[in-house]
Amino acid sequence: MARAMFDYTKAVLAKVSFDTNLFCRELQKALKRxxxxxxxxxKVWVNSLIKQNPELNQCLIYLKP
Length: 65
Description:
The chain is mainly α. 66% of the residues lie in helices and 0% in strands.
């Protein structure tokens, strides 16, 4: 159950990766809901997703401390 929110978040972000604005909004929501260690994992995952979809690069501002 502990990984459920993290896995759900990744699934949602992957599905909305076609729209930069929607991706940024969902990323902001995820950062409010996830635990600190999950956020660190999410940063790694988002960076790999951005390599495939460079237009999402502008959403990185939400991942900076």
